[in-house]
Amino acid sequence: MTSRRTFLGGAGVALVGAAAVKRSAAASLPEAPTQGSPNTMAPLAPPNGRPYNPVVTLNGWTLPWRMNNGVKEFHLVAEPVVREIAPGMKANMWGYNGQSPGPTIEVVEGDRVRIFVTNKLPEHTSIHWHGQILPCGMDGVTGLTQPGIDPGKTFMYEFVARHAGTFMYHPHADEMVQMAMGMMGFWVTHPKNPAQHAVDRDFVFLLNAYDIEPGSYTPKVNTMLDFNLWTFNSRVFPGIDPMVVRLGDRVRIRAGNLSMTNHPLHVHGHRFEVTGTDGGSIPPSARWPEVTTDLGVGQMRAIEFVADNPGDWAFHCHKSHHTMNAMGHSVPTMIGVDQRGVAQKINSLVPDYMVMGDKGGSMGGMQMPLPENTLPMMSGEGPFGPIDMGGMFTTLKVRAGLARNDYTDPGWYKHPKGSVAVEWSGDMPAAAAAPGKAPATVPGETIMNVKKGGAHHGH
Ligand SMILES: [Cu+2]
Fold this sequence. Notes:
Radius of gyration: 26 Å
Structural class: mainly beta
Order of helices and strands: HEEEEEEEEEHEEEEEEEEEEEEHEEE
Number of helices: 3
Bound molecules: copper (II) ion
Number of strands: 24
CATH superfamily of the domain at 2-198: Cupredoxins -  blue copper proteins
């Protein structure tokens, strides 16, 4: 909560920062609260300014502001942080105000916003306000619209949040390094009229990816595509909190993609509509039902649905390797190979060896010894056993009888009697034969149609 806020470095740092601020109308820099806890913080009800319905940042928080003569003033501090990726693993990252991603910024359409950005990184940075329609010189592109913010300096951005919508912020300076290190944050501009696009629960998070070698703590910043940790707000399952909603609630989930590949986000048990992009709200006549929506690189989507189906529903990226944590790829496929006996022989030479694929066992149930500061590939214990998931996976917990502002994890869903898939213990029915004549086969023999002739020209 914001009660955990601390003053960064105290008044001394504020004075040094203020000296570097040239055009500030303020006598001093606004407070720069920091957040150390990776827990999902309760929505921040606006203490002043125009009213709005606040969002919930998954495993994150919203940045408080100072109102100064009608201008909302925020203070972001770009700095090295330690982020818990999930219990059992921490990473040395770069972020804002104590965390990666940085805090969510929430403002209202028409608000004049002033953002102070202090750089405590070892290299220059800048912030681009992705999706905002603003004066060119406030766009945050180092070299193009401003000089970089050197280490120890504070810059001031000021603009009017002209359009309601879902946005994000990230550096436009040494981008590959700074984004690989976790520098990004969410931005929501609420509509002037709180009744417009109103929902009961509004969740936000960013999609990001890291390459952290098992046993190490710092992301590899030269990785271009082959990342090994696929995260929601720099967290992996089971470190991602469930999205808890009340039965019958209208729910909005907003996500932005600052990783280097696309992510098809899939919801179980519900149909949704994409109601917004980083370009704004989509008119109702242009929406269509979906259960999966693909988020391209640099895109944002807002989806909405009524949570009318109680249960614990999976919510995840549909790329199966994105619901896994760091893994080795140089393993041959052993599906169909009977490995019984092999493990014992290898175990006499390599004590920790285990087989996968056939007669080996699923990865979720494996208890492999891991290097320090590394998560299992897939984990998470459910009410029926291992969930076999990691990475971009969490649950949507739909429950009757929750209080309006209650986001507490209600535990596992209690299924009505007779509504859970069970093992069949009766007689097996006779298999129905397909119409037509089956080809004659000899047991154990495989029929192959081989196309003869012609050279192989490669791929
Ligand atoms: Cu994905």
